[in-house]
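Notebook entry, cofactor series.
This is the third protein in the set we're modelling with a bound small molecule. For this one the ligand is S-adenosylmethionine. I'm keeping the input format identical across the series so the outputs can be compared line by line later. Sequence and SMILES below, as received.
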Amino acid sequence: MPRWSGVADAYRESFATLCSGTVERLLADTTGRRLLDVGSGTGQLAARAAAAGRSVVAVDADPDMVAMSEAAVPGRSLPAALPDLPFADDTFDAVTANFVVNHVADPRAAVRELARVTRPGGRLALTAWPGRPAAWGALVADAFTAAGVVPVPGERLAPDLDFERSVAGLQGLAEDAGMEVVLAEELHWTWEIDPEALWTGIAGGVAGVGRTFLAQTEATRAAAERELRRAVRRRATEGVLRLPAAAAYVVAAG
Ligand SMILES: C[S@@+](CC[C@H](N)C(=O)[O-])C[C@H]1O[C@@H](n2cnc3c(N)ncnc32)[C@H](O)[C@@H]1O
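Returned structure with ligand:
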């Protein structure tokens, strides 16, 4: 999983707080004692589920993320990569994948595998970023443009593997996996982040923006940092950035 390798600490400081905006909703909509969280990252969802008394298993493809999940839910984390999960059919009452299917090489195969381990009548909850630019992304993109950042080739999936980055697209993945969609909507929240933490994520190589930043010359990186700090100063209030965020969200029944 090279995209996530070596970025776990920077992710925890930065974009993990963005992804946490949907966690309570996923937990509320996937009742059932045995919960599997796939692509568990820092273990934030697994930890909240365990604190609520649920029996949790957390898996992630990246070893550093597995170590973080293990620290969050000791004895409950293991390495595993979609589309191959080391569990029997129908093992879990609830399965969550928070901002994961938008990162895998074969989203349809990934959701089929998530469906396979969800018991009949159980719930699978999925989130993905909508295709339109996010507020934080626009802020960074404007600063990068002002700094003369050279775009790096995107990592888009081949059209036959990709899915529409929307509620309908996510719903299609669940339906293709033979599940009945019981809830499909966009979730909206405000991402509150310390500008320094956002900077830690970008400079630490997290996500497309981080990879783009690290691919620049030293001079361009310095200009990008200057521009972003300037943009953030204009946008932040009392030292905090408050940015609208949105996610495509689907809950499906096994
Ligand atoms: C955006 S992070 C989300 C982490 C976590 N779900 C959260 O809400 O903070 C995406 C996570 O998916 C993991 N991941 C990427 N590809 C994966 C795959 N094929 N199988 C399992 N996990 C994967 C990454 O290592 C990373 O931890």
